[in-house]
Amino acid sequence: MNPATAAAHAAPSDQGEEMFDLFRRPQGRSRARPDERAVIDGARTSELTVNGKSAVVYRWGDGERPVLLVHGWESRASRYAKTIARLTDLGYSPVAFDAPGHGEATGDSTTMIEYRDIIVELHRAHGDFEAIVGHSFGATATYFALQHGVRTGRIVAISPVPDFAYLVDSFCTAARLPAQVNEELRGRIEREVYPGEADMWTRFSVFHGGAGAHVPLLVIHDENDGSVDPGQGVRVAEFFGARLVTTRRFGHLRILGAPQVVAEITEFVTAGATGPGRKTEVVAG
User: Which sequence spans correspond to the domains of the chain?
Assistant: First the structure.
């Protein structure tokens, strides 16, 4: 879904076809980093099948006070290793997964529906979560799952994508695609990826239906995020009256492992909301 990759590979005569394929499939599969390995190797792992595809589920702790961590597009559960280690030390039971087409899971792609179904199944298995931490696409999927009965005490939205329409529009804008390609891409997504999903452009949104309106929320976004405009984090925080933490120089991916961010997440998860509307700046060291 990387627009720079898309622009480099698509010829004008077949832009629509190329863009559709590049948008709906992760471009490359990231590997666990050396400093993440110990945490991942210490997890209890299992497979979860949704829509005929397999996700890999990771669990730590004794099952008490579960916290779900939801990775973003072209990412993986191991990116939360530092947060997982800290939460485990504090007596929580982190739960994470590699979605189909990501991390150690099989397949070459996934959908918002499959993300939702995974979260719903994990909620069924673990009960209400103490908190859910969602990064980017994972934040959108978290709120979509709340529309379908998932309950949590708190939410942390990191670099949040506010809605699915933003994904398509920002992808097309970054790749400098004409309006007709945007329209073609939307049409193919509706017909081929989400057939029968009425009003998907409205429902695949953190703002839809009041889901999570009364759940304490912390938003964290880096001012140098090159994938999701930092203004989207502001939108989400203002809509929910949530605290917004703005970081510097971590970008879209490094933010998950930044010590200051890990501290913000764990403090919020363990202590609850710290007051709506407060803005905090975290400077990279």
Answer: 31-163+204-282
The DSSP output letter for 99 is P
Query: What is the distance between the alpha carbons of residues 228 and 198, in angstroms, rounded to a whole number?
Result: 26
Strand partners, 89: none
DSSP string, 55-72: EEEEE-SSSSSEEEEE--
Amino acid code (one letter) for 113: I
Q: 216: number of CA atoms within 13 Å, CB side?
A: 16
* DSSP-derived 3-state class of residue 74: coil
Amino acid identity, residue 100?
P
Q: How many CB atoms lie within 10 A of CB 272?
A: 12
Task: Give the 3-state secondary structure percentages of the chain, helix then strand then coil, rounded to 5.
Answer: 45, 20, 35
pLDDT digits (tens, 9 = 90+) for 210-249: 889 999 999 999 999 999 999 999 999 999 999 999 999 9
Question: Exposed (0-12), middle (13-18) or buried (19+): which is 30, by Cβ within 10 Å?
Answer: middle
Instruction: Tell me which CATH homologous superfamily contains domain 31-163+204-282.
Output: Alpha/Beta hydrolase fold, catalytic domain (3.40.50.1820)
CB 138 within 8 A of CB 160: no
Which token pair is 168?
């398509």
Contacts of residue 200, defined as CB under 8 A and 6 or more positions apart, other chains included, come to 164, 190, 194
Asked if residues 97 and 48 have their Cβ atoms less than 8 Å apart, the reply is yes
11-51 pLDDT tens trace = 333 677 888 888 998 888 889 999 999 999 999 999 999 99
